[in-house]
Amino acid sequence: MCKKLGMLAAVAVVGTLVVSQTRLGSYVGTAWDRAKARAHKQVSPEFQLERARHLAGQLGEDIEKQKGVVADETVRFNDLNKQVATARKNFDQKRDELAKLRSDVDSGVTKVKVDGTRTLTPEEAKDRLNRDYKTWTLMEDELKSREKLVSVQERKKALAEQQLTTLFAKKRELEARIAQAEARLQELKLQQAENNSARGEDTLAEVNELLGDIERDLDREKVKSELDKQYGTGSKPTEPTVSDEEMRERLGVTKPNKVVRGDE
C-alpha cells in the first residue's frame, strides 16, 4: 500500500514539473517575442531604408555576376552546336562515300576506285567497305553523344537565363518597395511637422509595416540544379556482323538487277 502511494506521489510530482516547464517555456517564448518587437521598433525607419538600399545593391552585384554566367553558358552552347554541325557534315560525307562503294561492290566491277586515285580489287573493296562501315557507325554514336551534350548545355543556358530574369525581377520589386516606403516616410514626416505632434512611434510602425521584413522576402538563394554529367556513349559496340541487305538499307543503296562484268 505504501509502495503504491509512493508511486502515485512520484507521478504527481513529475506531472507538476512538466506543467511548470511547459508554462515556463511559454513565458520565455512570449518574453523573447516581445523583446524582439521592442528592438525592431527602436530601429529608425531611415536605417531600415538604408539597409534595404544595401540589399538592392547586393542584388545588383549578383545580377552582374549572373550575366557573366549566362555569357559563359551561351558560348559553350554555341561551340557545341558548331562541333555537332561539323560532325554531322563528316557523317553525311562518309555515308555518301560508303554508298558509292557499296554500289561499286554490288555491280561486280573488277576495279574499284577509292579516295579519288586508288584502285582496289573486288575482294579489297569488300574488305574496305566492311571496315569503313564500322567506322561510320562509330561516327554515328559520336554524333548522337555530341547532340546529347548540346541538349544538356541548352538546359544549363536556359537555367542561367531564368536565374538572371529572377534576380532582375526581385531587384525591381525591392526598389519599388523602397521608393514606396521612402515616399510614405516623407509624407508622415510632413504630417508630423504640420500637426506639430510627435508621431515617431507611429511613423516607425507604419514604415516598418510597409517595408515588411525585406530580408525575409528576398530570396537570395541561387538557383542550383544537379545536371546530369554522364555524357558517355555507354559500352563499346561489339562490332556485330552486318548483312549486305542491312547495309544497303541504311546507306540507301538499291541492289542492281543485273551484274555487269568488266572494267568501268
Overall description:
It is a single chain. This protein has helices at 2-42, 45-107, 122-195, 200-211, 214-217, 244-251, and strands at 112-114, 118-120. Helix content is 77%, strand content 2%. It has a domain at 47-227: Helix Hairpins, CATH 1.10.287. A hairpin with a 3-residue loop joins strand 1 (112-114) and strand 2 (118-120). Strands 1-2 form a two-stranded antiparallel ribbon. It contains 6 helices and 2 strands. Helix 2 packs antiparallel against helix 3 (122-195). It has 264 residues and is mostly helical. Residues 218-237 and 260-264 have low confidence and may be disordered.
Give the arrangement of secondary structure elements.
Elements: H1 2-42, H2 45-107, E1 112-114, E2 118-120, H3 122-195, H4 200-211, H5 214-217, H6 244-251
Antiparallel strand pairs: 1-2
Helix pairs in contact: 2-3, 3-4
Provide tags for this entry:
264 residues, 77% helix, mainly alpha, 6 helices, two-stranded antiparallel sheet
Given the C-alpha coordinates, what overall shape results?
rod-shaped
The total count of strands amounts to 2
- Give the end-to-end Cα distance, rounded to a whole number of Å: 121 Å
Q: How are the strands of the largest sheet arranged? A: 1-2
Give me the strand/helix succession: HHEEHHHH
How many helices in DSSP terms?
Answer: 6
CATH class of the domain at 47-227: Mainly Alpha
Fraction of residues in β-strands: under 5%
Q: Uncertain regions: pLDDT < 50 for 5+ in a row?
A: 218-237, 260-264
Kindly identify the CATH topology of the domain at 47-227: Helix Hairpins
Describe the sheet with the most strands.
2 strands, antiparallel
Residue share in helices? over 70%
Structural class: mainly alpha
